[in-house]
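Marked as duplicate of an earlier ticket. Keeping the data here for the record.
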Amino acid sequence: MKRITLLCSFLLSFCFLFAQNGTEPVKLTDMLKIKTVGNIVANNEGTMAAFTVTSIEPDEKKEGDYKYVTQLYKVDLTSNAAPVQLTFAKESSSGPAWSPDGKTLAFTRAVDGKPQIFLLPMSGGEAYQLTKFSYGASSPKWSPDGKQIFFASGIGLKDYSKDSVLNPGRSLVSWPFEKPGLTTKEIYSIPKGKGNPDGSIAEIRSYLLNNEADGKATVLTKLNFQDEMNVSSNVSFNQFFVVDANGTSTPKLITHGFYRWGSVEPTPDGKKLLITADVDSLESPDRSLESEIYLADADGGNLRLLLSKKGVVYGNAKVSPSGKWLAYTYGSPAINDVAALAVMPLNGSEKDAITIPFDRSKSSLTWSKDETFLYFTAQSDGGVPLYRLKLATKKIEPLSDFNSGVNSFALGKNKIVFSKTELIDPSGLYSADLSMANVTKLSSFNDWVKTKKLSLPEKHTFVDNKGLTVEYWVMKPAAYEAGKKYPLLLEIHGGPTAMWGPGEASMWHEFQYFCGKGYGVVYSNPRGSGGYGDAFLKANTADWGAGPTSDVLTALDKTVAEGWADTSKLLVTGGSYAGYLVAWIISHDHRFKAACSQRGVYDLATFFGEGNAWRLVPSYFGGYPWEPKVKELLQHESPINYVQNISTPYIIFHGDNDRRTGFVQGEMMYRSLKVLNRPVEYVRHPGATHELTRSGDNRQRMDQMLRTYEFFERWIH
């Protein structure tokens, strides 16, 4: 830990010196310049890595608009040569997967609106299309002998049921269809055709079914009826297929039945498939929250349950290179739960598993070639370090610092190649030895940042009124001068299980933009945030308002105590859960000159009905809105019930198609404030989802940030 602390101090000093070199402030349109390194995969020899880079480009179909484009690159791990771009098509390329011999790269690209698998020879030449599958094909994975490729395809229940190839026996679902008063057999027996509205009950049902097919009615019978954009009656499943890599065969189905198939991966010897799924013939996949791990033969037959327990989600399953060991995570389906890490013999059972104590949420489990180590990333203390577990001792050590975020990585023969977000680069590609020493930057995608004058995040801590240590970061204006006073913006994260720090890619531009505009910024990880362990994660249970408010306002107070903030120009903003918390704060506190909520939740009982993230309600508040004690708690914790106390000038944003939180609550908040004659403005973005401010339409992203800045400027000048 001392080594890491010293390293962090060095990095912060380096970042501070670097930040002084540029002269230009970060501008709004700099958002369009950011290139993001995505998924990284190394070939079997560990000498080469392929990765994705997503950029924002002008949309040739819509003047003045911008689109995301993802291309494939490769980098030689035996040298420090610059990455080489592999794809150049207008359509994005993603999901790279090396053939076992390293001679071919499989990837996914859309054709006529459906993803398909393409193959790119590394010896040169154009990529060619392998699949022309009517349902689409994605997530390619090679068989160990390089002769076949496994892939996933999302197929609707109706399509799967009537497909004579995929469902030759025309089998029916065995779990309840949940259409009141009708059995599954009766539903499937409804005659096809236009029907007759004046005919028999069978003809009437046929007529009504035809109306649904023509888009005249959407009939909902499932529990989770909201996707990210719309309400939907569709039921679909991932099914997995295998196809010959030489293109001489049609795809063959290897998963069967109306179940939630999560992932399929061949074992190193090619004899078995490791499958994550929820196979329950008695419960609708729409209701089930559990998942299991299975082993099957290479053709998908002889499915054998390996890991299963009531109320447990198993995931992140990774077989070691020799095929001897299985690493995986398991935990509760609740969002506010830290999953455990375990290792077991692949030919054993759960009683043989060894759980590795580590109170952080693990992801991207990756075995070393010799199986001595298991590498993974985890949000922790404001950063996303790369960790390494030594199997023999169960010791876990961080290999990178807590002031940056490792977003993706792959293990080469003698190197780790990884992408990282840090102050000096929102997304860069790096290599290091297998202990993360001798770090070398390989990319120059975001070298434009060198011309910018950046603000350095300064980390602080305090102990809150619950005895928890809370971390927060202070960013002074980029052109800060001692002795002057500046506006101070309190930024709050959502989730509520999110975690922010200097390595948070989604906020890099926004923080620097406001600092470039002469604002100071303070942000924290209040109780309930991820990255600090299970107890911290659950510390806002039944307390979404007052407790987290105390934490974020304490961070603000301590920043104000530094003496450079103008207390007559305090501002606050946040999105999603943080949109909720902004509303809670300004209905209980009146220090802010202006406030902004994006994509927020304001009435928890309504959120239970209109948001696809509705399970947050029972997870955090212990029940449902009709239960007397829960009803009282939800009313107490809902900002809409304190709307009469809001006098702070307030701008509210929501996407027209945001089904994560729903948008009715935003309308409730806005209308209530208008009736009360309070200073409020409501902005709706057509077609926007909950991703409005993160990965949504780029003009809308800029619009939201610029309107927020303009609104703040009205009130502080």
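See parent ticket for discussion. Confidence is low (pLDDT under 50) at residues 1-20.
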